[in-house]
Amino acid sequence: MNEQQPTTHNLNAAENAPNKPEAVAAPPLLECRHLTKRYSAMGDALSDINLKIYGGRIIGLLGPNGSGKTTFIKLVCGLLEPTAGEIYINGIAPGVESKLTVAYLPDRIYLNNWMRVRELIAFFHDFYSNFNSDKAYSMLEHLGINPDDRLKTMSKGTKEKVQLILTMSREAGLYLLDEPIGGVDPAARDYILNTILTNYNPGATVIMSTHLISDIERILDDAIFINRGKIVLAGSADDIRAKNGKSIDDLFREVFKC
Amino acid sequence: MLGKLLKHEFKSTARIFIPFYFALIGVAAILKLFTLFESRINILVLPRALFIFLYAVLVAIVFALAYIITCTRFYRNLLGDEGYLMHTLPVKPYLHIWTKLITGIVWLFASILAGLLSVLVLTLRKGLFGDIIKGIDLVFKQLGVILNNSSAGLTLAAFILMLAVVLINSFLMFYASMSVGQLIRRHRVIGSIAAYFGFSFITQMISAVVMFILSKTNTFDVLQNGNVGVINGRVVNIQILNAITAFLLVFSVLYTLTAIGYYIITNYMLKKKLNLE
After folding, report:
1. Considering the entire predicted model, what is its pTM?
2. Which of A252, B128, B198, B213 places its Cα 20 to 30 Å from the Cα of A203?
3. Is the ipTM of this complex over 0.90?
4. What residues does each domain of chain B span?
5. Class assignment of domain A8-102+168-255?
6. Pairwise CB contact (< 8 Å): A108 & B87
């Protein structure tokens, strides 16, 4: 692994194939140049991130707590301004347009507690032209969640599932899921990962930040290891496994040994 | 997009205001019933006193509510966990400010209406509506006379303008204080309060300076030439009216400028310095 690598990490299988020039012509779905975020003089939450990400991939953003995963995601969502460097989503800086392309699932309950699920679906439908209400209702039915229930009557796990359903019902170009399986039991984890796999917009990219790697390893196309604000390793999951001769989960434990 | 934001904002806030309005009018109705049966049943003295107290409390709450809710909504919806939802919506940040401002003002007027309605209920008696219409007629006649006299009309207009500007300014000052306060990660509420006092202080200083400068000009000089006029058969010193009008206009301009300043500050903070926890 190259800790001091200043080069841009390109995550696109097509780019690595020598005879596919047309894949390089489109702007990257997500591009970061020297992206830095500093909160205080204590140090950078994110430091000189260079990244190019294209569509159609499931990417794991892997790192210990405090490594900068959430900061990175918030920057892409436009919830934070970079201290230095640039972000481009489909070639434009974060703004109204990019917010339509990006579907974000935070690692907390962020929806109004008093609203009914039906009202939340109407809300999302109102504001996002790419929101698919039918999909949302069918996923709810699958899970046995009553759309007329208010959020505050639900358990935390169910609230998280509702939030996930709303996010995955967006036909977005980039899904940013911050710890989607964090507080959930193993059976529900499988369901959630399956939901993500079967429901995201084809051609879109899903970036999942997590530290429960063994659960998501099987569905990852690419992996980005991040530590103390810097990208430590990035590449396709198969390549990483081949080069290091071990699973990504084992590699993670080795790299981030306390 | 603003329409959608407003719809959602009204929905979210109505569930707090409407019950209070019903409570206010309900208690007024109960008090009215008490007075109706007063002469016959004496044991109602204590409950009646309680209800009078309750009514007074509700009146105070209903009027304060517009300010309380506007602040808590801004804080929770835009700076709390709900901020993760609101700030990832594909809308420009300044629309959020307008949404909160418009709904705050509308609810303030609605609260005033609810208050008036409750008073109507309290004073309900035969011929009440007849008297009200007579009263309104009288007010309009007076207004007509005042407006015919341009000086007084101008003063009235300036007064209304001043009220509107002060109102809008007060809401925007709260928003600016909170959006500055959220910069201080661990002490957001204290930060907001400190910012509020800071802004108040600055506004006071500017007002004082403006007053001082104006006092050095002829704007407020009243005892010149004894310019008098006649309104409704009474002799009025037009110079005084002009002085008052000038005073009101100057402060309207001042508060408009501070309101714009607070808007710019709030927009900048939400756009560039947002730090949700």
Report:
1. 0.86
2. A252
3. no
4. 1-124, 149-277
5. alpha beta
6. no
